[in-house]
Amino acid sequence: MGQDLENYSVHGVCPHDCYDTCGLELTLSAKNIVRIRGDRNHPIMNGFACLKVNRYLERLSHGDRILYPLRRTGPKGSGIFVRSSWAEAMEDIAWRLDQIIQEFGAEAVMPYSFSGNMGILSSSSMDRRFFHRINATRLRRTICSAAADAAFKWVYGSRMGPDPQMIVHMGRIVLWGANPIVTNVHQIPLLDKAAAQGAKIIVIDPLKTESAVRYGVHIALRPGSDAVLAMAIGRYWLKASLFDVEFVDKFGSGLEEYAQAVEPWTVPRAAEITGLSPFTIENLAHELLQDPPLLIRTGYGVQRNRYGAQAIWAISALSILSGSYRYPGGGHLLSQSDAFPINWDLLTRPDLLQGNPREINMVQLGNALSSARIPPVKALIVYNANPAATAPDQSAVLRGLTREDLLIVVHEQMMTDTAHYADWVLPAAMFPEVLDLHLSYWHQYIQLNPKVLEPPGEAVSNTEFFRRLAQASGFGQESWVHDSDETLIRQALQSPHPWLRHITWDTLQHNPVQRLKISPQARPFIDFGHPPHGLRLRPLPLDNDTQTVGDNPLPFQDGEGLPFQLLTPSKKNTIKSSFGNVESLLEPKEDPTVYMHKRDMKHLNLQDGDRVRLFNTLGSARFVARASDKVSPGLLLSYAVRWNRDQDGVNVNQLTGQELSDYGGGATFYDSRVRVEAYKQEKPL
Ligand SMILES: Nc1nc2c(c(=O)[nH]1)N[C@H]1C(S)=C(S)[C@@H](COP(=O)(O)OP(=O)(O)OC[C@H]3O[C@@H](n4cnc5c(=O)[nH]c(N)nc54)[C@H](O)[C@@H]3O)O[C@H]1N2
Ligand SMILES: Nc1nc2c(c(=O)[nH]1)N[C@H]1C(S)=C(S)[C@@H](COP(=O)(O)OP(=O)(O)OC[C@H]3O[C@@H](n4cnc5c(=O)[nH]c(N)nc54)[C@H](O)[C@@H]3O)O[C@H]1N2
Ligand code: SF4
Ligand SMILES: [Mo]
Fold first, then answer.
1. Is the Cβ–Cβ distance between 412 and 66 less than 8 Å?
2. Contact 336, 358 (CB under 8 A)
3. Which residue's CA lies nearest to atom 5 of ligand 3?
4. Residue 118: CB within 6 Å of ligand 2?
5. Does the N-terminal or the C-terminal CB of the chain have fewer CB atoms within 10 Å?
């Protein structure tokens, strides 16, 4: 704690779904937070947070904040509520859940949550215990990274990578489907340092992003064609004997099957599919092997399509064939999610589950709510998520959310698009108001977030919400309900794993930021975490064989009169829909914008600033068209995710579908095909 006469500062952790998981410095005066900034003592933040979190005070006391339990009185989706009490809310919800379970069975109850607060308590502790105990439908939390996670596990056995701080020692860095200036801003000083020391940074992205411009070398391939590019490079290396035979012999497996799988992908054929020239592909194949160490830094953009898992597999193969893991800091960095060996079982208590309730993939929420299934979903409990804005096939989702026979409970901080559809809206606390422990999916620090403020009104943490719901549901006699937040953290840290040595509740009190006990020099999968099956080059056992890359020409060609492919990646000043209501972060009266290539605009007779409607068989939405050189012809760009309430009650997810990726059941947001029409006046499609 830093001190001056009246103000003092405490450590906090940014809870948002972002690679950086920033340590923050909260300055308090008379029990109010007066400033939030990046932690000056954290080795990665160096006192800097980001555009969004520098304005956090506005979010903390925002007019949209929900302060009391609210009961719906108007029609579903009208947003008409009256203030109620926790007692009344819990009694009514528990009674209705009980009725539903008696009539339809416990699988008629469905949780829906993702990463509103990434702390382990807020995202997966008491909530999981509650749903396990009642045997509710299990949610497959796939909306973000499931294809990549599954492919990564297939290849390497677990989701780990080199220490991100080692990137400064690399000779070659590939940013593959990642845009760190927007989504991982604390990587930028590290990349800049690497570049200043002579590293070559190559950006592989269909869009000319800010990161592509900053680092100069940009490979603008067609979206969804990464697996083809990576296979062609792998084949080229095999044919020219350019790969690291000794490394592959010692640590790899499945080379023969790999060679068979990549055989069709000659450089000319890959050039046709990727839209790159044969020279660019061959040149890239040579570039990747020069000036090691090589780090491939993949982002999630590369896997939000029907070939997403194959892309990750094929890119991973390059990290193995090049022997990049020989060097400390080299290899493939996508996620560190498995690097934190905490005791998930004690935290989430899968032992409370009886039997084997069905699973529903969250990408298919629309189908789950609006098409017949047995049992039907009769209760939806939403927390840490805003699916009315962020889930694909929004028409189906909104149709489901307006069902009068569906009990919808939303625990939220803000009156979001989803909260509008609720029967009950319950107020949720924000990060300075809750105790939590944070891991990261990028760096290797574990951090404590102490509670420094009382929540306003009657807001409660996620753990407290589920404790109250469990008690109202008749589980008050069971010990799992009564574990305090401190106990939950102590349980999570009960692990014999050497990486967590001395990281305990007590040491975290004095030192809230602690590095896992892994040497930055240790090489993943070589010095630790070596999978019994070796590093797998063997192709993925796809969930859906029809999705083998190359069998299906889409999304590489015009499809069914829908000539444009629409990409909807992350937006600089929001995190998905979070921050979408913080006025100072948004342009005044900012219009929903779609960026187009000027050749396409000319072809459609559009001027910069014209209004257009994008549509496909799923839905439609209105935008302002802007000419941009970020996109190539045939591509459209619109940053996600806006609040529906700011765009005719719908957003860009009107145009995205529920199809799953080739493996791992991931989302395919960036496979969206659309038509563009000048928009003059309202008319039915
Ligand atoms: N400011 C901000 N930060 C965020 C978020 C946010 O919304 N805003 N979201 C957070 C979340 S939830 C996540 S999951 C991460 C995601 O952050 P990233 O991992 O960076 O992923 P995306 O933003 O989805 O896309 C990154 C890039 O992939 C490109 N891309 C799209 N399709 C393809 C393709 O087929 N091939 C290739 N090679 N590239 C492609 C896009 O053009 C984009 O530039 O960021 C987190 N951080
Ligand atoms: N078109 C398109 N759609 C996308 C994507 C895309 O690239 N393109 N990306 C997808 C990806 S990668 C992701 S991860 C998803 C994210 O989708 P969501 O999980 O819906 O994420 P957010 O929009 O950030 O909404 C999180 C909500 O949780 C609330 N919240 C925050 N903290 C707490 C808390 O402690 N308790 C409770 N109860 N609530 C809290 C916030 O107020 C916010 O409304 O969106 C997906 N949607
Ligand atoms: S949103 Fe990301 S960059 Fe910004 S403070 Fe949070 S973790 Fe850091
Ligand atoms: Mo995500």
1. yes
2. no
3. 49
4. no
5. N
